[in-house]
Amino acid sequence: TLFLRVQAACRSAEVLAQFLSEHALVSEVMYPGLPSFPGHAIAANQMQGGFGGMLSIRVKGGEGAAIATAANVTVWKRATSLGGVESLIEHRASVEGPESPVPTDLLRLSVGIENVDDLIDDLDEALIFARNA
Question: How far is CA 123 from CA 1, 4, 67, 109, 119, in A?
């Protein structure tokens, strides 16, 4: 089932990245499938069949907003992994510790095979909650 899972994750990640690139509470989306991504031309040349199921976002409001967003999702699972059937979210700087070069407002997302609309709604609600917290 790997081929089908990767295909589904790639499709959903692309939809999610596009949605988040236009989200008022996200300052940056790092996903090679977006034309605005600095390495997009290279990725488009090298990546056949999709741009992968991994992306990162930077949350407006800084570290607190990023942590609050990750803490308030229900469909996404908080975990450090990738490539599974479930969608995962993590605040990478917390995992790596105070010496991490990862920006503290960054969330890493590994998209699984859930319905992409459910993933979008869940993340959108968590971003809004974090802004209002």
Answer: 26, 24, 12, 10, 6
